[in-house]
Design goal:
The chain is of the alpha/beta class. It is built from 7 helices and 16 strands.
């Protein structure tokens, strides 16, 4: 395995307690105004901005922000559509704040369990209340995680073989030959050293729990990788990384913000 940064050149990630945010709005002026207001608030970092719902969907999955500001009305996929798509794909979700000039969307917003609903033009004081609410919600979520882990169920048997469906055939492969697995719209694709196909597991969590935890690593909510099949660590923006895998396509897989620390420890970068 190789990498392009020494530990001396890798800047530290966001400080403890920083709320990371993504802004999605089809109007440049609205994105700029909200960015300006947020930068005036302490302890919040804007990771990226998106100009439409589809772009927002991709960025949420790549960057895993704590908080997402979504304009209700956007071409292609609106803000509420982004929330629905992410819920369908499963996995942990950020907190959502919907922004719009129209009050009548409020009921639908709260039906989707949005953290808040801001009317444009957004007022600084009202925005500060929203960020404070998001911080409390994130703290509550962090506090509840140790309780969930207090009495874990007995681990399932680790499997050394996997069933992969390829061209209407059910093929059995050695687990160690899996390079990575990814999920999209509820379907898990397994890429092996010889071919790729679909798994009969329903979630990445379920697949991971049946494999050797010392060999398979959940680097992102949508990706599970074989650490022995990482070919290269590629520096990415915002002090993050992508993993170039040892498959035929040399697929580049994003490392989530949460898993970046483990990556540095694992590879001493």
């Amino acid at each position: 395995m190789s990498h392009g940064l020494s530990s001396a050149t890798v800047p530290l990630g966001p400080s403890l307690g920083t709320v990371t945010a993504l802004i999605a709005d089809d109007e440049q002026l609205a994105r700029d105004e909200l960015s300006y207001l947020l930068k005036d608030l302490p302890g919040i970092e804007i990771l990226e901005t998106a100009a439409n719902g589809l772009e927002a969907l991709d960025l949420v999955q790549q960057l895993e922000p704590d908080l997402v500001f979504l304009d209700v009305q956007m071409p292609g996929l609106d803000g509420m559509g982004v929330i629905r798509r992410l819920r369908e794909r499963g996995g942990p979700l950020p907190h959502f704040v919907l922004t719009t000039a129209y009050e009548h969307y409020a009921i639908e917003a709260f039906r989707l369990e949005a953290l808040d609903y801001l009317l444009k033009p957004v007022e600084k004081e009202r925005l500060a209340e929203t960020v404070a609410r998001a911080r409390r919600a994130l703290e509550d979520r962090s506090a509840s995680e140790p309780a969930k882990r207090a009495a874990p169920p007995p681990p399932p048997i680790q499997r050394t073989k996997l069933l992969v469906k390829n061209n209407n055939r059910n093929l059995i492969v050695d687990a160690q030959d899996m390079i990575y697995a990814t999920i999209d719209d509820g379907l898990i694709t397994v890429v092996t050293t010889q071919f790729e196909g679909q798994s009969n597991y329903r979630t990445i969590e379920e697949l991971q729990s049946n494999l050797d935890p010392n060999l398979f690593w959940r680097v992102h909510r949508s990706f599970l990788v074989n650490i022995n099949r990482i070919k290269e660590v590629v520096p990415w923006f915002k002090s993050s990384f992508q993993l170039k895998m040892d498959d035929k396509k040399q697929t580049e897989i994003p490392v989530s913000r949460i898993q970046t620390k483990r990556l540095r420890e694992l590879l001493k970068i």
